[in-house]
Design goal:
Four copies of one chain form a homotetramer.
Chain A lengths: L3 E2 L4 E5 L6 E7 L9 H11 L16 E4 L1 E2 L2 E2 L4 E6 L21 H8 L16 H17 L3 E9 L2 E2 L6 H9 L8 H16 L6 E8 L13 H9 L5 E6 L10 H4 L3 E4 L2 E4 L7 E2 L2 E2 L4 E7 L9 E5 L4 E5 L10 H24 L9
Antiparallel strand pairs in A: 1-2, 2-3, 3-7, 4-7, 5-6, 8-9, 8-10, 10-16, 11-16, 12-13, 14-15, 17-18
């Protein structure tokens, strides 16, 4: 399926950093989802670089709804949005095109596409394509919210500094939605930003861990075996550049627990079935149990750094040294939160559409 | 796609713990893959419970090749293997069927299947279905080896005890292939087994981390965005029961590195392009770079324990206490290694079939 | 997808004429579909050769439900049924394996599978695999009937003799369901049988046209463009061996009509919207309009004949003459009706599952 | 998959008649396919209405390559082309939006999309979207030709008048490629045009049959059962609006043949294996046999006619009369030929990519 994700609700990404435009097709959308363009713009803004700790590329993210929206609602036929690439640097990429940037896809793209790839600015591998994921999320998130489903992501860890965990999801989400640097503890956020600035001064970059909570998904969604909720979420999350690990619930800490510690006992809470804790991240046997879905994703430090690096010229097949110029993000975690939210919205919307049919997420007329 | 995985090479699982049989259909296989039944049996034996630290269920794993093999080679048409369920306990499951075992899928299956699910012995969620994955792997692994691709998994961590990392892949793989408890350090293995026995005596269980290396995959395999090698491998790995996290290269440790530490510099090694280290696990931008693919999977402790647990009766909707009897694995990591190898073989075989066409993995005639 | 059909409800076929067994996996079934084994047997019997105008191969069609049924209902997890091959002739196929039977897949299979194909009795291409389609249909048809959807197929034309068209669907379907030679006019049936017997005496075979009606599918099912109801039905129908054409409504006769003749005017019928005639076969723009879906499929004459035929030896690469022995069906139309019904049931069940969700076809508990 | 077709090479259509634009994403393209923009424009011109027998809508079919082409070659990443809708009539569609045009999708779209559909000018169902299919075909056809595969479609029958069949494919294709009204016999073409004009004068429309030949596909391509070449081609062909039947080889005439007439005897032709005739249309058992693939598609008469028609108002639920104004095509067969070529190119390119891998259709660098 390559650049398409989903079974019933399918999202197709396209574009290259310096092509005419990038974009997304969403097919299998319910008819009657209200499209809020202010919300789309607000979500795009969260992803857009801003402030001292972001790249200087001034992306405008103006977009065109090519089709699939009529009178403010989705039509139920494919929705395509294109975003023109207007901010491309005019510099000549051809000179350095064969000097593989470590941690980037220059060399692997060359192996796969035999030199036909568009190598300008990362081409199809550019993080810019996440704007198209955000657009898709911005269509789906409001529809999910009408069904009582909310998604929020915070920077769980950055540059070795921990944020606190979720306490009150509802309040915490409000904090995150309003923040340019979505951490739950302001004190942790301040220290993270300071560490990022420190790394930037050294010409280096930092990584970290995002944690996403998804609330309100009813029990009984997902599939055993290959299309478990974990399988689908991780499949989609690993499409975000720089994600190198995805875990659920207590994640890798489960390795050191005993069964008596890792199991989440059930109990009755009034008439509802809940678990007393959530080490399994709301998923048992690949299927939701009604508790919050809790997921972590490790984001490796941005590979674009300003220290000299050893590498190769993959066309000349000889060793080479690389010194990057320009400006690049020393950290992308704060910009990646809205991307993670969007990716999760795509997965959950697909699972619900499979479960409840193609009309589920739309309004009635 | 539910119980089917893969784009060009598709694996479909079926079965329930106490149904007539379980099995697998593999479609899209190249014609001309030699089928080695001794190898299939040997691989199944690795997964089968054995020794003090395993359940007493005596599974025979006799299997029938229903179709798809002729004169010792795959035909290129669907290969189906069924494994009869002969060792089912005859006990009555109906009495306790609504007492949700914490950490298991009893309750989530009920929510999804509305009570029509086969609840005996875990039903469709039973780890027994991994035998079908192993069979699929046992068809594919020899075909991959003929292409120079080898897969090996060790118990990287168990009950808080670390194995050493891979040093010499080729020698280390031999150690793992011949071991009933696949750790690289015998001393670590001994300590792990002791810890497992200790947990078992307390009626408890332990978890850990598997690490898999895949050697020999050429550079340029995989897709950007949704079908990255990480996306495909994690999708498949999360189908293994108890896996709650999957990571690549340095995994979650990447969170605390700087870009200058996380990037893998390239260099020429004679005429070959290699990286000087492998923090990215052989994958850049979702595509293989020719280095070993390195993956970790956290396995939560087996949820079946013998300590009394608080839970609910999900039909009566009331609190309940649960005391499991019988025998259950206090640890499944050693049995899961061959399952991880098999799952990886499925993914890699699919990626190569997409890349090089449907005949690639077969022999010529 | 090769041997798998369907988006949400997926049917996977496997087997070869002389392998251990053939079978089918149905995944994405709703939980709670009542499974009627008498009905499965009755449907299989309709497909089984019988009487003077059928092959002498005595197929028993005993089957095993491997999984997916519990207490008489589908569980919602994959349902697999295997049918052992017990009636294989023991004759040696290897001697004549390279003499391509005209109209059969011997040569094309050799080109595709490079000689690894199981060539005995047609191998994977054997019409015997349609028994697995009939089993899948026998699970689905009763579930569809509970939703008010009925499917019936008659022999519209055979050996140049026309059956009458549908008049009263409900009564006509009863006639067809009870018939060993499903034509609506007994007089036409008698003449067709006589023509078949005449062709058989000459060592020849006949073809014809099947016509299927599907009643009760609500308006608004299907997709524009690639997954139109016509696309999905024809895709599935062309998987039936010998089908070489599929059409809807007035079919190829539409070529000679004018727009004013081909359009089906709408009218109100009490509170219901209907069309006054059905030249479009119940489908407009790829989507059902609530009228009966009407489909025709041309079945070429059985390629196994007893006249000497010119052909080649595709291994020796030389001209050859072929004289078939044994017994073969001079006509398969009467046996193909239940296969067409089954295939249509698979398609419609998939479309409804997409539209209304995974629980739609099951009963509530 | 809805608006996406293909397994390894996937084509996704989007757009509505009066939305900002329509377009197509092609994913899974080989890197290194030369993109000839003159050819794209020439192909689009063939589809565009022209002359007396076509609608007056002046479509410009200017397009934008959003991405996927670099330095004149495909990159191997998704190729997206958008075509702006600039010629929309500004008339108010809302007044008549509930008056179902017989033979069109107005009512079925309403049933499916509950009134959220874009009803202007046929919306997503507009024949205008076939321009996106033509664009996809115009990328693929030259790549196929470099592999020795040629595709041509003629108007086999129109308004009751027969064209001659193919005689010399190579010469006949040249005739068709250069013609505005692609029939092989000029005399037949003249009579057809006259008949179309006659129907147009009466305010009526005509239908007919297209016949497509595909040359040069090697033997051994396609799949048995569900993904037979017939299944894939018919699936795609039925996505063309107005197609109501698809057949292969002798098509529905096979109903009246005997086996001895329908079978195509093989013979050696120098070192090549051929058949002496081609009643099976180049396909045996769903797989190509190396002979030309021969396919027919019946096109129903254009449903837009100027005679008053009886219909309903599907919102008011009452009978209504309909009198169409404006101008509409009295015949679309000549414009549909290039669409059929394009659709076949998509199917064949997908089959070859599956068979020979993702690089097959590209050039080497």
């Amino acid at each position: 399926m390559k650049n398409t994700f989903g079974n019933q609700l399918q999202v197709t990404l396209f574009g290259e950093s310096h092509s005419a435009g990038i974009g997304v097709v969403i097919d299998g959308l319910a008819p009657g989802i209200a499209v809020d363009e202010d919300y789309i713009r607000a979500q795009l803004k969260k992803r857009r670089p801003a402030g001292k700790i972001s790249t200087a590329r001034k992306e405008q993210d103006e977009y065109t709804i090519q089709c699939g929206v009529f009178n403010g609602y989705t039509t139920g036929t494919p929705l395509c949005i294109t975003i023109p690439n207007t901010a491309q640097h005019s510099k000549d990429y051809s000179e350095t095109r064969a000097i593989a940037r470590p941690g980037h896809a220059d060399y692997t793209a060359y192996c796969k596409y035999h030199g036909f790839e568009d190598y300008r600015g990362g081409g199809h591998f550019s993080g810019r394509l996440t704007a198209a994921l955000v657009v898709a999320g911005a269509i789906l998130i409001p529809a999910l919210e009408k069904k009582g489903i909310k998604i929020g992501t915070h920077i769980r860890r950055c540059a070795g500094i921990d944020d606190r965990g979720f306490e009150s999801y509802t309040e915490d989400f409000e904090t995150l939605y309003g923040s340019e640097f979505p951490a739950l503890s302001q004190e942790a956020a301040d220290r993270m930003v300071k560490a990022i600035e420190g790394a930037a001064e050294e010409g280096d970059s930092v990584g970290g861990i995002l944690e996403t909570a998804i609330l309100g998904v009813p029990a009984g969604v997902g599939e055993p075996w290959f299309d478990s909720v974990e399988s689908m979420l991780s499949h989609a999350m690993f499409s975000i550049p720089a994600v190198k690990g995805v875990s659920f619930g207590d994640g890798f800490a489960l390795a050191d627990l005993k069964g008596s510690q890792a199991n989440d006992p059930f109990k009755m809470d009034d008439q509802a079935i809940v678990t007393v804790k959530n080490s399994n991240g709301g998923i048992n046997g690949g299927i939701t149990n009604g508790m919050p879905i809790l997921m972590q994703a490790v984001i490796k430090p941005t590979p674009s750094i300003f220290k000299e690096q050893s590498t190769i010229d993959f066309i000349q097949k000889e060793d080479a040294q690389l010194q990057l110029n320009g400006r690049h993000d020393p950290c992308i975690l704060h910009r990646a939160c809205v991307v993670a939210d969007s990716v999760c919205a795509i997965v959950i919307a697909d699972l619900l559409t499979q479960r409840f049919g193609t009309d589920y997420l739309g309004e009635e007329r």
